[in-house]
Structure prediction request, 244 residues.
Amino acid sequence: MVGLRLSWAHNLSDQNLPSLAIVIPVFNEEKTLAHAIKRIQRLELDATDELVFVDGGSTDKTKRLILDAGFKCLNSELGRAKQMNKGAKNTKSDIILFLHIDTSISSSNISNIKKTYSQGSLSGRFNICLSGHNISYRIISFFINLRSCLTKVSTGDQAIFVSRHVFENVGGFPELALMEDVALSKKLRTIGHVACLKDTLTTSSRRWEKHGIMKTVVLMWKLRLLYWLGIEPEKLVKMYRNAR
Prediction:
């Protein structure tokens, strides 16, 4: 695939490593894509690995930038769950990694996913660090990671990965308007060990910076509480959009 440096040299132990598919949902990401694509182009993937973007109907140059960089880009209905499910269905690798466009991942992170899978973990996620320089972002990141490790419930920013067999058995992401990552996590933690990898990925704090740290924290916890109380995601997403 153009734009990727594939690692063709394998030793005997490497030949037994599983294959990995990276699925990246996008929608109107023209402003962030140039930097993100440069990061992705530096990944050293094995010849059997896959990488696919899934566009939810962008009205800007998102899809054109992806195609010009030489990557595969599928069309999908808008909705992160629908986009990620479509990406998963159009790949064949042993493991599926769902990556948000504003979360950075390295070749060593991918190697750790494969090793973790080979050791018996059926799913997992990474620690994250919000990109902002304010000390508040370090504190927020710490509590996100702690909560996730204790509850085995992950957010999409944490780069959720899962065995294809397990992902298909649970029916993929529930096609909810919001909280699809939480809903999937709750299914995965009932099936087998969820790996909390200690690698720390940097994810963008743009949402927090745009809407304010405290306002965003309160909104996120409010939405989680209402979801836990049984409020329909369709109603929650309206609250989310109105707040933004």
